[in-house]
Write a structure and sequence with these properties.
The protein is mainly β. Helices cover about 15% and strands about 35% of the residues. It has helices spanning about 1-25, 190-200; strands at about 30, 40-45, 55, 60, 65-70, 70, 80-85, 85-95, 100-105, 125, 165-170, 175-180, 180-185, 215-220, 225-235. Strands 1, 3, 4, 8, 11, 12, 13 and 15 form an eight-stranded antiparallel beta sheet that branches.
Length: about 240
């Protein structure tokens, strides 16, 4: 009997240790940018990141200055090599004056089926609210869930100043934070979510699967303007 109790105790300890180790692994922050290279990212539809995306002074910068016939050389949205479901994404961004970019998530890395990243992935807007004309549309301002939810105003810093972002997806709940302020908090996939999409630009036929798949890649947007990202990390939940 004593041997059986000892064996049961040891088994319980082993299970608890495994669960604790698994929990620690899930809660570990994973760096998505090493500060020196574009490793871990690729241009949507390609195998590596285009040359317009550069590691400069510890930042991941999009540089649109090299153009041929008006087209940015090595441009395009970049996506993570890895896909994520429940996660806490954290990063900092800085936009050029009058600039526009975005952080897109749940991207389906299938360019044959979906022409653009935003055909499947919702976007947290990155914008110079004071200078870019898109800010005239209230649901297109920095920190908003682009064209879906008008976020809390006043959290964004001026152009060429750093902003901290948290995007938290956990068991159907989505929270966006900008500089520590919750700008958006919503639930994915319910009737309210479907109504948001129905009223948005994404209801058009070219985006039939937009907002319907809640697992995918993280993307940083080429909107033709200079933008910087740094301290990009993610925690699987």
């Amino acid at each position: 009997m004593k041997k059986q109790l000892l064996a049961l105790t040891l088994l319980t300890i082993a299970i608890l240790g495994f669960n604790q180790a698994q929990s620690q692994t899930q809660n570990k922050w994973i760096s998505l940018f090493d500060g020196k290279t574009t490793n871990g990212w690729h241009t949507y539809g390609k195998t590596t990141a285009g040359e317009a995306w550069k590691a400069v002074d510890g930042t991941l910068m999009f540089d649109p200055t090299n153009r041929v016939d008006g087209r940015i050389v090595g441009g395009g949205d970049i996506v993570t090599n890895e896909s994520f479901t429940n996660f806490h994404l954290q990063l900092e961004w800085k936009i050029s004056k009058n600039g526009n970019s975005g952080i897109i998530f749940f991207v389906q890395d299938d360019p044959e089926k979906y022409k653009n990243t935003w055909h499947t992935g919702p976007e947290m807007q990155v914008l110079d609210n004071e200078g870019h004309p898109d800010s005239k549309i209230i649901s297109h301002r920095a920190g908003n869930l682009y064209d879906l939810i008008v976020g809390r105003e006043g959290a964004v810093n001026a152009a060429e100043e750093w902003n901290k972002v948290d995007i938290i997806v956990n068991k159907g709940n989505l929270e966006l934070k900008l500089n520590g302020v919750t700008t958006v908090n919503t639930h994915l996939g319910d009737d309210g979510w479907k109504e948001l999409i129905r009223r948005s630009k994404f209801a058009k036929g070219e985006s039939p699967d937009f907002g319907k798949i809640f697992s995918g890649h993280i993307s940083l947007q080429d909107h033709g303007d200079k933008v910087w990202y740094r301290n990009i990390r993610i925690q699987k939940l």
